[in-house]
């Protein structure tokens, strides 16, 4: 069966004689073996098994089930789609049921019938394949909510997964990060991944509107509420009803308006300026700021109770200088986009320009990089953007990690080098392998081991 060869079966058993017996019984499946939790986790990361058979009694205390349950928890955390079949003793039904409650696919009592175990493993493989195919088809037919975000940095990938997880809830999300780090892109992605995607996404910058106008912009106003109010006008909150409202630069919201916003978050009703009627509004709030709101609250510039209302889910977005490989990757993407917009044909970035881009600290983050590349595309004389075109001076690289664990140092160094190489060659794995001086299969193995996709 070709599908069985794609991802193997892992057999976790500390009794080597029984381990061999299980492997022999399941010889039609490609299998890897492990005898304790540490070796099982190593095989898990290395081989990405689709199905696991495991004993709960593992070294160093084979008479206890604590190591087995720890391993089961770690397998489920690594990939909840993996089908784990727990092998237990005849009178161990309580632990078997506990394992199923933790996410195990099935359990088998020892001694087992080889034919029944074969059938169970085959069904587990089939279910794994069906779920993987369903996931692939869903991804194929559903647009990527975060398609506007270009990254290969592990921190940003984790943030994307967080956004996807919280999108289905109604929790208020606070996006923290420097100016230009992509807070609005993430807010729009959150909206597109949510059940509200068919409704409006409304954004308002609290720092860009004069204080005397911001209240009417947020809450709307009734006809005759003030001079010039010729008709009743909906505010941004009401306009976003059933959709998502992004409050950008929330740290600049005037103090007197913070109380009114807090009341709306508590009651989910508003009153327009000059109005007396309470209006119910169903809206998802996403706020963003580059300021430290807790520090502002200690200075009595931001209400602490409002902060806790807004900070149900807090997402810290790293600056561009801390995203390994992203400056070069984004530079390639912006070059393609602006070359098409400016009718410049096929433009590429020279190696010296890439070095300058990688070493620049980018205080203005992605917005600064975008403007830099747009200017370079316009100013470039030939079909290649040079360091002179981008106008950057190379600076010293960031300080290295001070960890003394050699394995961590090696893994971090390999991950940094791979991400930097992929960013430099615009994601081409073959060119990245040549740049790193390894074969393409070796690079794929390293990427799998380090969790890079």
Overview of this structure, please?
The protein is an alpha/beta fold. Strands 2-1-3-4-5 form a 5-stranded parallel beta sheet, with helices on both faces. The chain is globular, with a radius of gyration of 28 Å.
Task: Tell me the layout of helices and strands.
Layout: H1 2-6, E1 9-12, H2 16-25, E2 31-34, H3 37-47, E3 51-55, H4 66-78, E4 83-88, H5 93-101, E5 106-109, H6 114-141, H7 154-167, E6 173-176, H8 183-192, E7 201-205, H9 211-219, H10 236-239, E8 244-248, H11 255-267, E9 269-270, E10 279-280, E11 284-289, H12 293-298, H13 304-310, E12 313-316, H14 326-341, E13 348-349, H15 351-359, H16 365-379, E14 384-385, H17 387-390, H18 406-424, H19 429-436, H20 440-449
Parallel strand pairs: 1-2, 1-3, 3-4, 4-5, 6-11, 6-12, 7-8, 8-11, 13-14
Antiparallel strand pairs: 9-10
Based on the model shown, name its key terms.
single chain, 453 residues, alpha/beta, five-stranded parallel beta sheet, 20 helices, globular, disordered N terminus
Strand content: 5-15%
What general form does the structure show?
A: globular
Mean pLDDT: 87
Give the termini separation: 27 Å
**Helix vs. strand class:** alpha/beta
Number of strands: 14
Radius of gyration: 28 Å
Are there runs of 5+ residues with pLDDT below 50, and where? 1-5, 394-402
In which range does the helix fraction lie?
40-55%
Describe the largest sheet: 5 strands, parallel
Strands of the widest sheet, in order across it, are 2-1-3-4-5
Count of alpha/pi helices: 20
